[in-house]
């Protein structure tokens, strides 16, 4: 199986898993799969996600290109001899994905005839759509999907999502987030309501071209190319920034269960970890909270993050249940606890 420009990493991973599900791979195909897995760290994460979706959600049937029905015991038994190799390949991938759950809390319809997809805290979900497009939902996120004959309408209600859009010039793919519309024909882009700097909507384009516009026409629209970001809100309009390819992939590291920080403050980082874990990072001293960090960290390990930045910034870590405190060695919270 060869990767093409028209297939995303997730699409290729899903195709490999679907082929494995249908029948054992031949020797040549197994070598080709292993070479693809080893070619890029992102391939392991995509492969792990595809396996988890196939096993744990009914909607994984769409990844299997029409493989019929639930698998019965004889089929499971037939697959047993080849699971050892798969488990070895997934062992590293599972660590890289930071044990983020890919269980879907599901799709349901409401009276408006739309479909709603959502994830709980710590979950990531890839949703295949009827036209060949796909949505990858970040932790604690929700989208509304409603297709008509001439338009594909998506509303990002909460959180962040990556959209891989199937080409169809006659049927635009429109994502609405608050007061911003993002329109694409065939492309890959992310939209976030958790933008850390301006509090508005962030649009990050990985492939193709998208148009970003204010729903009320109060702000001049903008066209966005690959490796560019738009920050949109009513106070400053639509601000466009170039994004290096490496930075772009780090911005989307949440797909692999990771969080990337590049000059963000500790307070901002603490808030990001709360989206993925019940453990809270508390910083009582605003001076400590304003310290800036750079790095890639497991989204599901706030304690590990706190310990890492404590070493690099000369801070103290204290854990009490699901609360992790960061302070200076002589900081107010640390001094108060030392006197008790």
Automatic annotation (TrEMBL):
Gene3D superfamilies assigned to the protein according to its UniProt record, in alphabetical order: 2.60.120.1440
Domain FecR protein: 117-210
InterPro entries: FecR, Ferrdict_sens_TM
Family matches, as Pfam families: FecR
Residues that span the membrane, as ranges: none
Name of the protein: FecR domain-containing protein
Organism of provenance: Stenotrophomonas mori
Lineage start: Bacteria, Pseudomonadati, Pseudomonadota, Gammaproteobacteria, Lysobacterales
